[in-house]
Design goal:
49 residues, Mitochondrial outer membrane translocase complex, subunit Tom5, membrane, 1 helix, Tom5, rod-shaped, 78% helix
Length: 49
């Protein structure tokens, strides 16, 4: 990142990285929420059947 002679990152690459990071955070939060709800869903299905 700070090595001499290394190219600068363009604004488009920075924006693409920000979008990718945002999507990653959203996917992690959604996955965590689904994992939190999964025991309740399993209990519901067991009682329903």
């Amino acid at each position: 990142m700070f090595a001499p002679g290394q190219e600068q990152i363009s604004k488009e690459e920075i924006k693409a990285g920000e979008i990718e990071a945002s999507q990653t955070v959203q996917m992690v939060l959604a996955g965590g929420f689904l994992l939190y709800l999964s025991p309740f869903a399993v209990d519901f299905v067991r009682k329903f059947l």
